[in-house]
Specification:
Distance between the termini: 26 Å
Structural class: alpha+beta
Radius of gyration: 20 Å
Number of helices: 7
Number of domains: 2
CATH class of the largest domain: Alpha Beta
Largest sheet: 6 strands, antiparallel
Strand order of the largest sheet: 2-3-7-6-5-4
Shape: globular
CATH topology of the largest domain: Nuclear Transport Factor 2, Chain: A
Strand content: 35-45%
Length: 281
Amino acid sequence: MLKMKMKEVSQEIRVASQILFVFLAIFSSSSCAKDDQGGDSHLRVTDEFVRLYMEGKPREAIRQTFDRRDFLTTRKQEIELVILNAEQALEKLGKISAFEMAWEQKLSEHVYYVAYQMFTDRFPIYITFFLFKSQDGWVISHFNMNNVRYLLDPVANGADEVPDAVQNLTDAMMQEFVVGNYEDGLEKGFVGAEEILTDTFKSGTRKQMEFLESILGEPTAYELASAERLSSRSIRLVYFLLLESHPLAFEFNFFEKADGTWVIADFNYNDQFKGIVALKP
């Protein structure tokens, strides 16, 4: 089943029994750090974001984060709602006294996943970032804040060996995607699973990808982020299709048929990094 996500800026806050939930999903940011000061330049943009929160300046942090392309004008109402809810959340949380980075994962040459803890007098707050190395430097592509520990669960970052037949299918598909040939890519990737390739399926994928390109820019490259061999006949691969301002996560689940042929069983892509948690320890 193909799952395609096209959500714009979304944000939700629920407060119940003094449990705070904050989810913020964004396309990309222009809060960027150049690679002119060593290998940790990708952390400067997240350190600055968290520092502003600690200083009680969520408006400044969020506006910096959304200051990309024309988001500040075309999504003004949504951004103001995010800011309002963030300010209300900080009032309920109390003063943030300190923060520290919990850990980071290098998912590919252009994508990092970074987790922080922010400390209040009541409980720790966890905040995670997907960082993307754009042509202008490192930017925040997505962030998520919550007071529950599951945010610290790692995302898929495996390095298992996979059969050439599996790698060839996904590479053939991504090579077409990176030049905008989405229908051709599907036909090259879904060998052995042609019953899924209806005209509606192919045209729907193409139209949705063209819509995302109109917002996030054209594809420039692709990278393999994770390979997990879940069993002798089941493999999961995660790729990033790098658009000009944001990476799209692509998840491929393969299984081996009784005749030894590897085929795609499930295929997902979205702009908010959903569903790519690690499936293996």
